[in-house]
Amino acid sequence: MGEKPKMPLDGEQLGRDWCDPGTLHRSRTCSPALTGSNSRSYSPLRSWKPIELDDCTITTPYIEPCSCAAPAIVLYGGIDDCEGAWFLRPDPKHKPELRIPRSLLQRVYFILPKHHRTPETKKAKEQKGSICGRCIAEFKGHPHVNPKSVTSYSLCGFSAGGYSVYSNLGTEDWKFIGLIDAVPPEDGNLSVLDTLGDCVRGVYNLVNWPGAEILTKFIPHLIVDLGVNMIEEGDVANNHLEMPYFFFTEYGCELAA
Predict the structure, then answer these.
(1) CA dihedral 241, 246, 248, 252 (to 10 degrees)
(2) By residue range, what is the domain housing residue 145?
């Protein structure tokens, strides 16, 4: 038997993360549907890489020479520039780890909209489509992405990015909905996720939202009435900016499956 291929440097550094690094480079079989003559040309990468586009930043996972399959996550951020490429900066408490763990970036496509709210006029939005839809279109059109290799799409929102989660529930057939210490529905509609409870995952800390009375109703509704899988992070830390890292270390393997 030949020598086992050596993993790239980024892969060698994944042992401290929450997933077995061996699973990142397991053997994959190319489907004819992914490599047939009708597939457009694209350029796979050997390690995750951020790519700046007009409406979003995208990342591509570790890709073998053939078209390996991987899920994609649309991740909205919040105010004060905590969005887009901000998620790819070091987490203050877990340096040198990033706010999205590198091990997850090696397994999942990320689509990071640059703005959780758009300043466009209603007419402009009608002409161009939603920011979420445009970001997905940009993602699918990039030469480092083979759209046929994307196994599923999930939608997550951190902080004020929760508003964009609630307003884009019908944009795609989402596998998971992620609430990362997110704001409650702006219109007070506690039932906005009632039909999606099984696919919702979340972390929260009410200490970070003093005076947000609607959250004291929304969170119990999700957990008690809908049985949503949510974790309170109050026992670990109460820094709002650390919640993305906490969310992805808790749910990353499930999101990457």
Answers:
(1) 180
(2) 43-256
